[in-house]
Structures
1.
Amino acid sequence: MTLAPGSRLGPYEIVAPLGAGGMGEVYRAKDPRLGREVAIKVLPAELASDPDRLRRFEQEAKAVSALNHPHIVTLYEVGQSEHGPYLVLEKIEGQSLRELLCSGALPVKRVLTLGAQVAEGLAKAHAAGIVHRDLKPENIMVTGDGFAKILDFGLAKLVYPELEGSAIGDATTLAERTGTGMIVGTLGYLSPEQAVGKPADFRSDQFALGALLYEMSTGERPFRRETVPESLAAVIREPAEPLRAKNAALPAQLGWIVERCLAKDANDRYASTRDLARDLTDLRDHLSEIGRGAAAAPAEGKPSLVRGKLLWTVAGLVAGAALAAVALELLAGPTVGTAPPSYRPLTSRLGVVTGAKFAPDGKTIYYSAAFGAEPSRVYVTRLESAESQRLDLPPAILRSVSSKGELALTLTEQREPTNAQGTLARVSPLGGTPRALIDDAVDADWAPDGEQLAVVRGRTERRLEFPIGEERDRGVAFPRLSPAGDRIAFARPTTPTTIEIHDLDGRIVLRHEIPFIYGMAWAKGSGELWFTGSESTGGTDRALYALSLDGKRRLLARAPGALNLYDVAPDGRSALVATGSGRIGIVARGPGASFERSLDLFGRTQLAGLSADGRFVLVREEREIGRGAYLLSSDGAQSVRLGSDDALGLSPDGAWALLLRAGGPSRLVLVPTGAGAEREVPLDAALTPVAARWSSDGNRLFVAMNRQGDRAGAFRIYLRDGERPWRAVTPEGTPFFAVSSDGAWVAARDTQGAFALHPVGGGAPRALPEAQGFLGPIHWSRDGRWLVLRQPNQLPAKLFRLELATGRVEPWREFAPADPAGAVFVMDQRFSDDESSYAYSVLRATNELFLVEGLN
């Protein structure tokens, strides 16, 4: 079938043919309704003859059409005509990547730029559960201004889903039988799992991108052989020749990225395509430094494990442990009078390290980590060994190891170490049943005698006790007893963060300010307190510092990303650190949707509000590159930036966003999400808002705020009703709260953990004793019958609902992202009025443990 110029396909006027292939014929066409040119792909006739296949195609094509990413060609419409089903696509003016490669290899900066753009597009689709399956140079267009766009996203599966699990031989046979050239993937970019007939997932796309990077860098395909069977065998069994063997001028880091993408085992590739995109972007941005020799190939004498891995992410992490060590060495700050410190990887599995400590002998290391989708477990390793052994203990986070070798653990299934709360227990490393000490522990540290523990307990008040039961302070983190046992250090989450060192009589020995603190440990022998911290407002330039008791601070090492100190070795020259990345993303399920959709923006996207009908989501992006408030449609089709301010809440009708104006004293503004003028909401300068809710009619606005001079985290819920001043309707408590549909009641939890319903019009609160043990109320049903409660941060997130008339509490829903890679916990759940639509934030963190040697 060939459509003649001037003919019509639905409302579209055909202009000229653009090409044809196994996936159908492509035409340039005009859309007279919008006055724009489009590309129309008419799909094969076999698709139209199978109603079930056609139905599945239409359903999945709708999912693809909602991707809405600058590096994915937009799918405008799915249509039907007498000529068969067709797709209406964005028309791209430019060249295919195949055309660019006709002249040979591309300059390395262009390889990285195009590769990063393609990876970003893939990451967006993968987060939505969509895999390309046939990535190749013909399916990537490069615009005249150098912008890469991916074509035919998901089309192989959409058109021929029955090939998804077939072996390559079967696919080839089918191709010969039908004459359409159908194959799930194209030879040369096909992953090993596809080649043997296993299902393709997002890591198969990473393999194809690795092959593209190889070809762009060298002008040659990595697995091209004389015959098809030989090529298939190479894909399945043979490693690609190293990039730098083809071109020694290429950066070693690019070779490591490509090597990882082309790993035969899909588990050895990237756990998240976003990490791959960040690696490529960061390498491109540091290319000039590498050209000056700052990142040369590893010299002789470096550990052999450094090949095949890389840590070039914005936050400092990808799961490849060994290359991370090299990147850290290259970027580490100078130490006085010595060579730069060396980094030895101690973990290699994808996950989050939750704790790590040296045993008294300095050669045995205990650590806890949550690998894959598992809860945090405790492991042991030796410096002379590359293996770790899991201890026969329940899920736990390691907090401290005593001078007698005894472990202090927080027994919990939570995966985020800083805020995880659970039962503090002590146990011998030889095994046995942990002996419980207290139930609400957040952190702990052994005294030098190996008998007493300093603990921080309580989720909100964070009480410091030493010994257990003797309160010394509140609102602290990272309790650390000095090697002599005569001082105790901790961090206080003020602005900026304060490190305080006290003697055991409570007198302040030292106070030191720095914007952010991420971990602390005493260096034995020197009397210094080592810590990881950041001097930037965004917390992105983490470094390892030493702080003496006279207040002098010196830099030990610097590294990109999320560098966390866990312990200092007995010799005072080595340390256990983890480096990784933390991201926050949004997942939403809009009205009528059958699946959840990722709405991530720039990597730290946090939910602020959901409209009553579930159609619109308000988010705040906290990463500097795109910081501000955005209104998104829950189907992913729309993203509107409302300004550089922090988003606090969305009115029920979605018409107004409440924002906290950036810079200067706290100012609240109501910004229209459509046409109109913004309105300032008068606010006492002593109040700091953090979250907002409306009554269902939109007339009453409730904001969780902290008043200057109050304890950190002691939020009250304030009401603004009409033009009247703000007034507090709850006592001090957490920022988690829910409002009844008529705005007459607020449900909140106080700092002691007690829940109550507070009447807005005045009067005594109604206690909810059945709600004890929950983190906070997050939703009140429209009919007023149920209050939804949230448990402490965990994965999957478990929500319960409390029937107000009877006090009965029952499990309600569980939430976990479809992609569990690095997911730590789910938070900020919001629901539409009918509770069929929802949105939530997902915190992801992946890191690896290193022994850093040569520090002084």
2.
Amino acid sequence: MELFVEDGKGLRRVEPGHFPLKIGGRESDIDIPFELAKNWSRPLARLGFSSGEMFVEPQGAKVTVNGAAVSGSYSLSPGDVIGIGPITLDVVEKPGALGLRVRTNGDGRANRAIEAATPGTIEKPATLGRGPRVPALWFALTLALLGIAAAHVFTARPVRIEIEPTPDRMNVEGTFLDFSLRGRYLLRQGTYRVVAEKEGYRKLEEGIEVGKETERTFRFALERLPGLLSVSAKPEVGASVVIDGRSVGRTPLAGIEAAAGEHDVVVRAERYREFQTRVTIEGEGAIASLDVELVPLWATVTFLSEPPGATVRVGRESYGPTPLSVELPEGEHTYEVHLPARKPQRGRIRVVGGEPLTVAIGTLTPADGLLSIASRPGDASVTLDGVYRGLTPLDIPLAPGSRHRIEISREGYEVDSRDVEIRAGGREALNVELRPRLGEVEIVPDTVGATLFVNGESRGDARQVLRLPAVSHRIEIRKDGYEPFQTEITPRPGFPQRIEAVLVSVASKKEAEAAKPRIATSSGRELVLVKPRRFQMGAARREPGRRANEVIREVEITRAFYIGAREVTNREFREFRSGHRSGAVASQSLETDHHPVVRVSWEDAAAYCNWLSEKHSLPPAYVATGGSYALASPPTTGYRLPTEAEWELSARYATGVPAKYPWGESLPVPAGAGNFADKSAEGMVASTIPSFDDSFPATAPVDSFAPNALGLYNLGGNVAEWVSDRYEMAPAASATDPVGPAAGEFHVIRGASYLHGSVTQLRLTYRDYGKDPRPDVGFRIARWVE
């Protein structure tokens, strides 16, 4: 866009060198009478023109634009009216041009002169002539330079540039006037690049954008040149190095560039503890060194044994032979040391990384030998040096180098005693034929045509004389149409015995059973009739020894039932499951035939009841469900376990009046009251009843001690008993014919055992529960009346 001036000389194009313009002075390219200009000795205002825009800035006189005073640089537009003292200028626009029109005042005087100048230009002295005082070329060049400088000043904005730290050299690229005044640069609108340099720092090259803001500050920070870091590690295992989370290689490393400042350094190597630290890099090319001493995560462990040559196993790894040194990771380890014909040694060690460890096993003792004992008949008791070890067939480890006393015994047979000695690590077999102790038994049935069975084995016609070992035998006489006759007898060598068997027809037995208060199974298991009644279960809160699960509740039994007079014996249970073993407790055998069966689960007892029902042609009382059993619905008359309510009614209300203990209402326990934890069981149980001796350290025969008023044996004492109910902590406050909850993990156990001796356990209201077999828990049978 061009610039023109319209005055008394007409419309003229103004060369760019004439701008910026200064109003003042004696000479002017604009026709202004001399008499008006000759008194002007100082500038009144500055005008500027650049990139198609015109500006005005007050200098010494009042300046108005469109009647409003301006105090700083002001951008002009076509149509603006500029007042500078007595001068009036109109900004006009024509196609492709922008200009100033000079107007005269009312008195006919022209406006003051407009003279080209640059900021800081010294005033020219006033002259009377119009011709140039210097050569024309020099004068034109000067006017051009001054015009360019003035245009820059009038259109520029002050910009502050702050750089930390202070650079050694700095310039602003993109302007030909690169100078500052008191930290400020005068820059026109546009984009520039700041370039700064300082020793030890990276060269700064940043772009800035200058807008129309009155003043703006740009701040920059010089980046220090990086330093160099060298990393080494001992031992030289090629450890990986990570700086600020970035992997940089493996040791040894030299000349790694790192920015000035603090850095996180991590050194890692397999089987060594991770090393972490912070290093400070000074920068500016300075070299820093980091020497790392790696700590191992393992240690050398040396195993020594006497004699040497043993195999060492650590965890699942096998090493050997001793003496042996292995590298093991730090932490807890188990080890085993094996040597043929020697006992293995086991132990635990704690390995600390970098700390060698010596494990001195010492002398490996000779290994035990193994003695395998078998007998005929089997299931004979074996004692080793007076200590019970189990039943034949049996393997017993023996210490080598000494003689041991072995005794093999079985009820009804002579004891076989012998001394044995075995070599270290050896294996020997001992087979013993036990000699029976025979007694004479005469069988006399009351009818002909009957068949005799001894322990389930047919012996032919029932009428005969037997010579049997002096152990308990089950004698059974069977005949069609008659109830089987069963009994047990233990022959006595030198004392003949006689059995007179009375066979009862099936029809007459049913009639008798309905009328009698007692019934018996075909195998002689006796059951006692208990009539229905209403009674109270549980114990009062203030009763000594009472537990929280013994809540008082009102219960009514509406159906008569039979309950076994005795607990089920080992012999009776082996009819159902011949391989069952009650085992032993301490050195006391629990296997005697007429002692109660133990180590049976609740499911075992329920299965036995169903088997017994099937044997006697009765519907089973239990149905299989979910791996266990539940009472059949509707109930049957098959054999089952007594319910908890039936058990407590039979135990506590035998006389009709509730009893506290099996023997009565008070302590101490009287002699002959039952089989409890007495002085004969000292050393086998934690506590015993003071001054009480029932002569049975473990179980006793099922008909030991006096029965209660109903004729029931050992409802308190001998063994605790499974009942039919599943366990619940607090049953309902009242119930009729309760059978317990439908589901639950545990079943109720009632009554004290030979392991019990506290006030809590001896009471008839004591409630226990469980799910696993125990050496002091058995059961008795029951059934509802037809």
